[in-house]
Amino acid sequence: MDELKSAREQQKRRDERADGSVLLKLSGKIHKQLESIARSRGVPPKKMLNEMIEQAHRDFVANEQHKTRS
C-alpha cells in the first residue's frame, strides 16, 4: 500500500515539473508564513510565491536599469 502511495506521489511531482518547475524546500516557519499570506489573499501558496518572486524580479530589473542610467 505504501509503495502505491509513494509511486502516486512521485508521478504527481514529475507531472508538476513537466512545466519546467523545480522542487523547492522551504523551512517550516517560512512555509507557514507563505500559507498565511496566501490565505489572506485567497490564492494558493504556490501562486503567491510565484507572484512574490516575479514582483521582486521586476523591482530588481528596474533598479538595475536605473543604476546603469545614472
TrEMBL record:
Sequence ranges of Basic and acidic residues compositional bias: 1-19
Name of the protein in its database record: Protein CopB
Location of region: Disordered: 1-20
Lineage of source species: Bacteria, Pseudomonadati, Pseudomonadota, Gammaproteobacteria, Enterobacterales
